[in-house]
Specification:
mainly alpha, 434 Repressor (Amino-terminal Domain), two-stranded antiparallel ribbon, 6 helices, 7% strand
Length: 122
């Protein structure tokens, strides 16, 4: 399951780290407790719109930029989740023809209705 609060926390943390700022600096500027800001960044607490606005102001970044980055990450996470569930739905046995394992050789596995996947045998 994709948690929006985790994605938002990740984006806020990256914004802060790009600026080389500490949690303490941002929490003081945003007038938010250090512990609460830490929990928001770790995706453990939901940020209200007022809190998010204060954090964005403290980071001197537009909320729309933060939300756009969150939206982009959400799209990627949804695609990854969708692809994973599609692959999980296809039995592995039906994806393989006869494969002879020879150490150090490259094996191409062709799942039905998908592009070839290269697997390098160890």
């Amino acid at each position: 399951m994709i948690l929006l609060r985790r994605l938002l926390g990740d984006v806020l943390r990256r914004q802060r780290q790009r600026q080389g700022r500490t949690l303490r600096e941002v929490s003081a500027s945003a007038r938010v407790s250090l512990g609460y800001l830490s929990e928001v960044e770790r995706g453990q607490k939901e940020a209200s719109s007022e809190l998010l606005s204060a954090i964005c102001d403290a980071l001197d970044v537009r909320m729309s930029e933060v939300m756009r980055e969150v939206s982009d990450e959400l799209s990627l996470a949804e695609l990854a989740q969708s692809a994973a569930s599609e692959v999980a739905a296809v039995p592995v046995r039906s994806m393989l023809e006869t494969v002879t394992h020879v150490p150090g050789t490259r094996v191409t596995i062709k799942p039905p209705q998908a592009e070839a996947v290269d697997v390098v045998a160890a």
